[in-house]
Amino acid sequence: MGVRIGSLVGRVVGALVLAFVLLVGSTAAAIWWTARQDARPVSDAIVVLGSAQYNGVPSSIFEARLEHALRLYEAGVAPVVVTVGGKAAGDQFTEAEAGRDYLGEAGVPADALLAVEHGVDTLESMRAVSAAFDERGWVSAVLVTDPWHAMRAERMAEDAGITADSSPTRQGPAVQTRTTQFRYILRETAAYLLYRVTGESVAGAPGIG
């Protein structure tokens, strides 16, 4: 009897381990697939996910996103570019401000720019953007971020009530080497699964942002 119970427990544990491995593997594959898509339907706004800025100057990762958003705007994808992101303690500028100013200096008219200066991570940012969309009667967005971040950003935007597609940037440090790409996919897999389980960003978790 004890042998049978032990065998049954072993099979259950094995099945759970296999299910977990399959879940992680399928999520990583979906992140990889989404990263290679480039959807740019005509939308209400282009939304640029924030990243680090230094005294108002976008980091190389953020700059790559902004340059991609600029090309989408010039191609007529949307009449407005929304930059989003708050600031860390001690910062003088928000990510949204830095992004707006960068695009303004690149020639985007002031009335075609909207800075949503809230959000310390993707989830907070998407909720803040959703509120701004509701105020203006907008429903659709093309999200600009790094390729590996696209699936999580889309999911959070959709959950916040935005009809979202993504057009990831193909430039910048996040896509420079295969090692970097692999590391980002692992981080995003953990972050995406944590979000699906909890419905929230989990402070300190890998890939959260």
Automatic annotation (TrEMBL):
Tell me one Pfam family matched here. Answer: DUF218
InterPro entries, alphabetized: Cell_Envelope_Assoc (IPR051599), DUF218 (IPR003848), Rossmann-like_a/b/a_fold (IPR014729)
Q: Where are the transmembrane segments?
A: 12-33
Any single Gene Ontology cellular-component annotation: plasma membrane
Q: Out of the domains of life, which is the source?
A: Bacteria
Family matches, as Gene3D superfamilies: HUPs
Keywords associated with the record: Membrane, Transmembrane, Transmembrane helix
DUF218 domain spans which residues?
44-190
| The name this protein goes by in its record | YdcF family protein
